Amino acid sequence: MFKYRRLLQGAIAFLTAVLVIACNAPSPPTDNSGSGTLTEIPLGVAVAQTSNVALFGQEQILGTQIAETYFNENGGINGKSLKIILQDVAADEQGAINAFNTLINQDKVVGIVGPTLSQQAFAADPIANRAQVPVLGPSNTAEGIPQIGEFIGRVSAPVSVVAPNAVAQALRLNPELQRVAVFFAQNDAFSKSETETFQAAVQDLGLELVTVQRFQTTDTDFQAQVTAALNVQPDLVIISGLAADAGNLVKQLRELGYNGIIVGGNGLNTSNIFPVCQAKCDGVLVAQAYSAELDNAVNRAFRDAYFQQNQKEPPQFSAQAFTAIQVFVEALRSLDQKTPLETLALPDLRRQLRDEIFAGTYITPLGEISFTEEGEIVQKEFFVAQIEMDESGQQGRFAFIEAN
Ligand code: 1QQ
Question: Which residues contact 203 (CB under 8 A, 6 or more apart)?
């Protein structure tokens, strides 16, 4: 009897193991098995749908959705359609790691647009790189992102080429500027990288750095730092942080009596800060990697579609997200013409797509772009905008004041 029970237990254990293996085994991708028909190409979008980081992520999702509709209505990928699969990266590194793992192993995407923050990219991109899945960062601007690995690129120009434009513009607005206070979020990779660029620009322009103040992206009260900075009487303040914290810092600087120019970094580059600093957002200078004015067919189409949906001009984060999708679409089309995608097994498709992406030149809403061998974007034009709030402090816009 005992013997039979042991046998039965053994059999159950064996069957359970078989079942577990069967359930966990990577199922062959329905369409991308290298044979048969391919009707939909799954492309991952890993941006923030929840948390404060969604202040950026919402704009990115709008850009990718407009791109999906636009490119599918204009031929798709040589007749096959593009299917965007969204995964939420939320606020932190773990959120991005989870989103990337799901997209790579479960959704079996051909590539990934994401994540939202550089802080997340440094954690999640190595996973995609090891899995040989091409990634385009839509908003990762810290130094060192493309260098994470050969499968990693970005369409978001680095802080080193974008941020100094805003400081130069501040100096044009007030040639008397001399004393600069710099604030940055010390727990965020982008903010740390951007402040280095800003501090170098201050030196290059012959200005004096009178104080460097640190904060956390989770902070809401900046009185200590603002008071310390005002004591050394700056006539320019430069902020590197993310939307909510940086917006509150702007507000408190004004409330505590600072009247000089404020330059905000890329983390202030969204109208989602308007409810945070309201009327006190007025006048902040922010460098831009996109201008709605850029005159080419794809930007006109993008701008019209965005305007119809939102009754305003598209912001930079939407334009960059659209561009990342466009690069994937055009690289997929071109690869498909050389080797029909349905003849490629998924790992080969991902590898060849990577090569195709970085070899191409693209006319996008950001203008003509291409990539260096490392996957860094090569982009020609940058801009500076100044926030204009109405009297009520409820409505505002980014008014472009310079093209260079
Ligand atoms: C980065 C950034 C942020 C402001 C993106 C939203 O530029 O993390 O690199």
Answer: 209
Does residue 318 have its Cβ closer than 6 Å to ligand 1?
no
Contact (Cβ atoms closer than 8 angstroms) between residue 66 and residue 322: yes
Strands (E), 169-322: 179-185, 208-215, 236-240, 261-264, 285-288
Which residue type is seen at 392? Answer: S
On whether the CB atoms of residues 55 and 243 are closer than 8 A, the answer is yes
| Count of other CB atoms within 10 angstroms of residue 39 | 13
pLDDT tens digit sequence for 56-104: 999 999 999 999 999 999 999 999 999 999 999 999 999 999 999 999 9
Question: Where would I find the beta strands (DSSP E) of 26-132?
Answer: 40-47, 81-88, 112-113
Cite the residue boundaries of each domain of the chain with CATH code 3.40.50.2300: 40-157+295-371, 160-288+383-403
Per-residue tokens: 21? 């293996």
The region that residue 36 occupies, defined by phi over 0 for left and psi between -120 and 50 for alpha, beta otherwise, is: left
Q: Residues 322, 63: contact at Cβ < 8 Å? A: yes
Instruction: Give the torsion through C-alpha atoms of 211, 216, 219, 222, to 10 deg.
Output: 0
Cβ proximity of 143 and 159 under 8 Å: yes
Crossing angle of the two packed helices 164-173 and 189-204, in degrees rounded to 10: 50
Residue 270 in contact with ligand 1 by CB distance below 6 A? no
266 lines ligand 1 (CB under 6 A): yes
Ligand 1 atom nearest to CA at 120: 8
Query: 115 CA to middle of ligand 1, Å?
Result: 10
Name the CATH superfamily, with its identifier, for domain 40-157+295-371: Response regulator (3.40.50.2300)
Q: Which CATH superfamily is domain 160-288+383-403 in?
A: Response regulator (3.40.50.2300)
Provide φ and ψ at 182, rounded to 5°.
-115, 135
Q: Which parts of the chain register pLDDT below 70?
A: 1-37, 402-404
- Per residue in 277-322, pLDDT (tens digit) is 999 999 999 999 999 999 999 999 999 999 999 999 999 999 999 9
